[in-house]
Structures are given as C-alpha cells and as structure tokens.
Amino acid sequence: MGSETVIRAENISxxxxxxxxxxxxxxxxVKRWWYRKLGKQxxxxxxxIEKKEHNTNESQNLWALKDVNFEIKRGDTVGIxxxxxxxxxxxxxxxxxxxxxxxxxxxxxxxxxxxLEVGTGFHPELxxxxxxxxxxxxxxxxKAEIISKFDEIVEFSGVEKFIDTPVKRYSSGxxxxxxxxxxxxxxxxxxxxDEVLSVGDAEFQKKCLxxxxxxxxxxxxxxxxxxxxxxxxxxxxxxxxxxxxxxIEGIGDTEKVTGIYLSGSLSGVGxxxxxxxxxxxxxxxxxxxxxxxxxxxxxxxxxxGNIEVEVELNSINDFEKPYIWIAIKSAKGPVxxxxxxxDGYRTNSLTKGKNIIKCTFFTVPLLPGQYTLYMGIxx
Length: 379
Known about the structure:
The structure is a single chain. The protein is α+β, with helices and mostly antiparallel strands. 26% of the residues lie in helices and 33% in strands. It has nine helices and 18 strands. The chain has helices at 26-37, 88-95, 128-138, 143-157, 172-185, 202-217, 230-236, 254-263, 340-343, and strands at residues 5-17, 61-73, 77-81, 103-108, 112-115, 190-193, 222-226, 239-244, 247-253, 271-273, 283-291, 305-315, 319-320, 323-330, 333-339, 349-350, 353-364, 372-378. The protein has a six-stranded mixed β-sheet with strand order 5-6-7-3-8-9, with helices on both faces. Helix 3 crosses helix 5 (172-185). The radius of gyration is 28 Å and the shape is elongated. The termini are far apart.
C-alpha cells in the first residue's frame, strides 16, 4: 500500500443469507439443517411460515456488495452516496472491521474511529464520563491522552450537566452529541460517520460539519461521510463514491458523482439526440449539446458555473428574423431564461435545412436537483 493510501479495497464482496441465523448451539444448527434438507418447517422458528416454491437457496442469498474496488488517500474527505439498501452501511462496517468481507481484501493504514449508529460503542449502564474513557481506550488512546481532551469533548457535546448520568437515560440527540464528540476529538487517523448526524438539531449539525472540515483540512485526517444530504456532501467532500445495488456506479469528483446520483444515469453525457417527429412542425430539434465553462460536453453542472446550449435544428423553410427562446427550469419554475421576445435579440435568419443555435447562460445558480431545458421558435 502506497505511503499516502490509507484505505484500499480489492474486489470486496459481502454475501448475506436471508433469514438464516445461528441458533446458539451446534445441535440445534444441525437439527435446523436436517429439517431444511427434508423440506420441513424450521423447528426453531416461532411463527409458522408457509414454504413457497420459488424459495431456492439462490433466492435466499443477498450480495450486499459485489466486487468493490477503490483507494482513499490520507487527508481525503470522501462522501458515500446511494439509495437505501445500496450497501453503504455494509461497506462502512467492513472498513470498521465490524464484519469481514465474504471475498476480497481491505487494507487500512491507521486507527479507525466509527460513528455508525446512535450509541455506537457506548454501554447504556455506564455514565457519559465512563463511556468517554471506555470509548477512548477502544480507539487505542492512553488514559493521559483522554484526560487531556476530556474537557474539550464534554464542552463540544453540550452534555456537561448530564456527564455523570448513565447514558441509557440520554435522548438520541444527546447520544449522538457525545459519541461524535468522542470520535472527533480522540484523533483517529480515519473517521467514519454514517447518517447519524441527522438525529441532532440544526445547530449541532452545523458544529459537526465545521469540525469535520477542521479534522480533514487542518489535521490531515481521512473522513468517510455517509449522508442523504447532498448539500453537505458537496460542501464537505473532495471525492465521492456512488453505490447502487452493491456495486460502484460512480467514483471521483463529488459534484459529478452526486449529479450522476440525481440524474440516475451515466449515459448521455452532455449530448441528447432528440427523436424526429412526423408532425407538421416547421422546425425540428434534432440534437442538443450542453457544455460547461471549459467547453466540455456535460450534463452535471456546478452552482454558479456557465452553461452553453448548442441546438441543431432542421428547418422546413427559410425564416427571416425568428424569435427564439431557451429556458432552464426546475420543478419550481424557471432558473435561467433567454428570449428574443423579452431581451430584443433576434437572429438574422434560419435557412432551410440544418441550422445551429448557441446560447450561453452565465453563473447559473443551480442547486442539487434535476433540470429541464425548454426551447421555442416563432416567426
């Protein structure tokens, strides 16, 4: 593993057998296996389940991850996005060494601090103070290191008044406050955060995001951040991984990856072939190409960037000084609009046959989401 690479995943796959768990004793496991071979009802299951014809062994297998490969460098802040069930939490559990991959290998360089769910690594019967020391010890810290950071941890969490109260009496928000504070301040080289921050209030979420930036940029630590808040992913992360049904569908620049996630497809990068219609339209749009500020064909754009629209038209007749309008709209309404009817600009003519129209929108305020391009021509 290279000196800067802190996480390397090589052909990681994880298989789960649905509905199959260990019974607790070897004898019971053998009994369950024998009953399944005979096609009988599982003797350990409390609720009777009618066996269905299509319940083959293969249908009971779920590949949560399949042949996943990636590298993460020291100091990177990587967002992991995807739908529910895409394999995000399974991947984080493998990186955290909570579970092992079925096949493949993952190499990790450095101490890992994980915050995968509310109360991760906390014992409910222990107080907040005791859990801070226990969690720090699990992360490999010495007692002197934890003592030196203790006041800072408690102040950041905002649970000073309850620090000597058993955490089983904490609300979910208090759990997250203290757990995040411990994970962030005890300086693991790799910090892993699942969607738990959504439990906290808006003020605490803001503090956490600022802390993540500080941890990554100032301290040079690596952060893996899972969230459905794409605004937070785009503002925090310099790279992203898009998971879909256990496989990587996109990896690299954060805004491109989140754009792929929102658009739902890797295809049609900047070029859209419009099917010709058989109606009596006098002008037919045949192809639309979108380009970014660098002139690269693209269908995912940054907030405040330029968008160049190039439209290939096929005109049935010649048109003198037609009015042309092009608009970019979101679900809530127009975002950018250029119209010869409003701004007074009119192209000289459209000639019979092929024509190309170009329009550039400057510093377009696009937020994460899907947008539609509209165009119209009239004489």
